[in-house]
Specification:
mainly beta; Porin; eight-stranded antiparallel barrel; elongated
């Protein structure tokens, strides 16, 4: 499959998931934007909440969600390249579920596949398969806590799969709307 078609297939697969069987119904959609030392990125994600909660104490508990995303990266100059990717990430979140303003912290490690490895003349990922880990914080708000606004520090790396393991970091803002 040609590199330029991979991103189109990823977007088509995510759009198709929105019309999946109700047993696997999507719980929300997220928009993510970020900037880093080497590139800028944007992503759209689909979210499936976990039904489990652990360490419940009053209105606070540990839970989480799955997030599948399709992303577009634009490398900064000199020689900035564009790459697309898809990923799947289980996210652990500790937060409140009470009221109309519910803060949280979260951490995750997921897997991502990219259309290429070159970001610009000075930066190249080691492999098209990368792990993406993040830590973040934010808050859910509004009626039924349908809205979610958060900050993430995201790191992509191949964890030593290849000798070249430069890693790429982003500061990201994420807005999610829950169904």
């Amino acid at each position: 499959m040609k590199k330029q078609n991979r991103g189109q297939w990823a977007a088509l697969m995510l759009a198709g998931a929105m019309f999946a069987d109700p047993a696997t119904a999507v719980d929300g959609i997220s928009l993510i934007g970020g900037t880093g030392e080497d590139a800028r990125m944007g992503a759209i994600g689909l979210v499936w909440n976990w039904d489990k909660q652990w360490f419940k104490s009053g209105d606070w508990s540990l839970g989480g969600y799955w997030e599948a995303d399709a992303s577009y990266w634009k490398g900064d100059n000199p020689g900035g390249e564009s790459i697309t990717g898809i990923g799947l990430t289980p996210v652990f979140r500790y937060g409140s579920d009470a009221g109309t303003f519910a803060p949280y912290v979260e951490a995750a490690v997921g897997v991502h596949v990219f259309s290429g490895v070159r970001i610009n003349d000075n930066k190249k990922m080691g492999t098209a398969f990368e792990f993406g880990d993040h830590v973040g914080f934010g808050f859910r708000f509004g009626e039924g806590l349908k809205y979610d606004l958060g900050y993430r520090f995201q790191h992509y790396s191949n964890a030593g799969i290849s000798e070249n393991n430069g890693g790429v970091n982003f500061h990201q803002l994420r807005l999610k709307y829950g169904f």
